Amino acid sequence: MEKLTDNFLLAQEIRTRMVETGKTLSTAESCTSGRIAATLTQVPGASDYFQGGLIAYQDHLKVRYLDVRQEDINTYDVVSQPVVEQMVQGACRLFQTDYAIASTGYAGTGENDVPSGTIWIGWGSAQEVHSICLTHDEGRELNTAHATTQALEHFLRFVKETY
Q: What ranges do the domains of the chain cover?
């Protein structure tokens, strides 16, 4: 329960920062299945800055709606830095937001020589994207919970440094 409280507090602070600066946010999620968006929108007043999110679980949806390049999926794997960074940029375009947060990973079983627990999270704007790779495998539920918390923490740090 403590982690949920921590995430709620992070979401409150993100809301405050976004409203103070007049900026908007969207999400593009795969392995976190909307947990990042759900956490952000639990805070009253989230509609003041949060525009929407896309759960693009399948590769073809990432390509179609987020402009992820199929050749990058083929070359680097769908769970990779180029893909998550394109997801951030694609969400900014799709939802016409200043910023986006994205996730792609193998929360449960790994694939294509990428081990389970490998999750890329990205955050930023269409012009400036940051990302990190998480590699701890604690099982599907804990992996996605940890990725959600990390995404919120990194995004909050980014907006604090930006404004």
A: 2-162
Neighbouring C-alpha atoms within 13 Å toward the C-beta of 26: 21
Half-sphere exposure of 6 (CA within 13 A, CB side): 11
> Rounded to two decimals, what is the model's pTM?
0.94
On the question of pLDDT at 19 being above 60, the answer is yes
Residue type, 34: G
| Amino acid (1-letter code) at residue 104 | T
Burial of 49 (0-12, 13-18, 19+ CB in 10 A): buried
Of 4.10.375.10, 3.30.420.40, 3.90.950.20, 3.30.930.10, the CATH number of 2-162 is 3.90.950.20
pLDDT digits (tens, 9 = 90+) for 50-64: 999 999 999 999 999
